[in-house]
Amino acid sequence: MELWPLQASLENPRDSDQPLSTSHRSSSVNGTREPDSVTFFIIQGLSSLGDRQMIPFVILLLGYIIILGGNSIIIFVTLTDPKINSPMYFFLANLSFVDMVYTTNTIPKMLAGFLSDVSIISIQGCFVQMFFFVQQSTTGHSILTVMAYDRYTAICKPLHYTSIMTRNVRLLLIAGAWGFGIFIILPVTILAVRRSYCRPNVLKHGWCDPASVRQLACGDISFDNIVSLCFATVSLLIPGLLILTSYILIGISISKMGVAQRLKAFRTCGAHLTAVSISFTSASFVYISYRVGNFSPEVRIIVAVLYAALTPFLNPVIYSLRNKELQESIRRTLVRFRSATVSATKNVSTVS
């Protein structure tokens, strides 16, 4: 593997867009870049921070540990506690799983980049990371949409809720959420795979973000940009409209209820509404940061990291704090775990 741009990118990451060797051309006579047998990308990340990189490293590491721990607890509790076997917790467990896979796809690589002089990823590995990053993000939004439909059914059609939300329907909804994520990213990934890439092969991002990868492609990428914009719009617009429709119908139904029923409905929807607001707001900030030209690469990376980590970080907190049934289940699980630990300790002492 040839490491032509490594030294230059370390010395001055901001200037890494300039050709560093006359033996590797990045432009032809007419000004268009030519393919240069690029087999890997250098992930710039926050290398411009220098020695201060340890601050975001520690923050991101602690956040990642909490993400894994909090979401693992939710998955474990929903799988082992028979008292919370409703469809809502089934969808919540799936959302927690997606959040864990989503962050694991990007954060460990970024953390490794903080500890090394240079972060390299193969083109094939970059495509895989790009695919799962967008696919998991879209799947997460889709599961939030499914959860909105679940809340609509529970509040607006309570007598038919059990017959509607059968096991097969739940599995079908989750399969649809994953399928929608694949549908959104597949055309973009195919276009990226078919492209040739030119030097300098430095990604101005913390991971293989589709927009950053496209900037390194040789030739005109106007069509790729249009396709990506269309599918990105669809990925936010369809879930957003479906969630909005669900809550409009929920609002109409709640307006006809008594005070006690309204409070119960608000408690049922509160956690989900909070999670939806945070997720779509942070996604909108990322979208704006890419469309506004005066944002520096470092600001875009920080905004993207907040988007990638904030929702998976807050989801367990939101659902744990706003859901008494889940709180009690976690408490029961901790008591069972403590009792099992005490019993095991006594058995070991008896044997000794």
How would you portray this structure in words?
The chain is mainly alpha-helical and 352 residues long. The protein has twelve helices and three strands. It has helices at 6-11, 54-80, 87-104, 107-115, 123-156, 161-164, 167-194, 210-214, 222-254, 259-291, 297-322, 324-351; strands spanning 40-43, 119-122, 202-203. It is globular and about 60 Å long. Mean pLDDT is 81; it is low at 1-32.
General shape? globular
Radius of gyration: 24 Å
What string, H for helix and E for strand, traces the elements in order?
A: HEHHHEHHHEHHHHH
Distance between the termini: 57 Å
Helix content: over 70%
* Average of pLDDT: 81
Stretches where pLDDT is under 50 for at least 5 consecutive residues are: 1-32
Helix/strand-derived class?
Answer: mainly alpha
Count of helices?
12
Strand order of the largest sheet: 2-1-3
Number of strands: 3
Sheet of most strands: 3 strands, mixed
Strand content: under 5%
Can I get a quick summary?
The protein is mostly helical and 352 residues long. The chain has helices at 6-11, 54-80, 87-104, 107-115, 123-156, 161-164, 167-194, 210-214, 222-254, 259-291, 297-322, 324-351; strands spanning 40-43, 119-122, 202-203.
